[in-house]
Description:
Elements: H1 3-11, H2 13-22, H3 34-48, H4 54-61, H5 69-88, E1 95-96, E2 100-106, E3 109-115, E4 118-121, E5 124-131, H6 139-155, E6 162-167, E7 178-180, H7 184-204, H8 212-216
Helix pairs in contact: 1-2, 1-6, 3-4, 3-5, 4-5, 6-7
Amino acid sequence: TGVSSFLLLLECPYHFHMRHSVGVNPPVGKQFGAGNVLHRTIERAVEDGENIDLDEITKEEVYLPLADYGDEIRMQNAIRSNVENLMDTGGIEGVNFSETPFTIQVENLVVSGIVDAIQETNGNTRVMDWKSSVHEDFSQRYQNQIQLYSLALRRLGTDVQEGLITDLSKDNPIEAGVPVDVSTYTTDELLEEARERMENIKQRGPYTTPSEQSCNICDISDICPDSEVR
Length: 230
């Protein structure tokens, strides 16, 4: 499975089971894929350097087939503005975009993913992720993702000291960023939690772990017997 399914496992084993094992596919949002588009736009902006044409890059990269044309134009404008702001404030200095694939086994679950970018700053290695805006409801999911990437990089020989979620809607995305604890203790705890959940699924079958935070961001809450958003 991929990183997204792994993050669902940590939030609620029932949600993970319904999406990953049963194959329930809830309707996708009209801006589906916008996160990947943002990353690719930043990467191309860095690659082009002085020859950058951000208008052309965003037109080529921001293609949202599930959205209305007006939504696509608004997304192009928003991403262009976000990337310009990130570059103007020095947020991409020292960023390495060499994609790092990884595989981690958790009980009988194999998780595969790619770390898109790391940043060398003040002698430290930082795992970072860019968000067009940071939503409090998703804060734990964001942190789990950064911690998983840090765990994977350490297993591949990269010593990670910092984690950061950058909010590109802010005037200074780096200063307004959300630090993530990526200590070895924390990432080991994350892996142990996933192992316990996989073992419990094997023993008990899929089970719910309802909470206000996880239920509020769940996209199958309408068919969950224990949802707290009803």
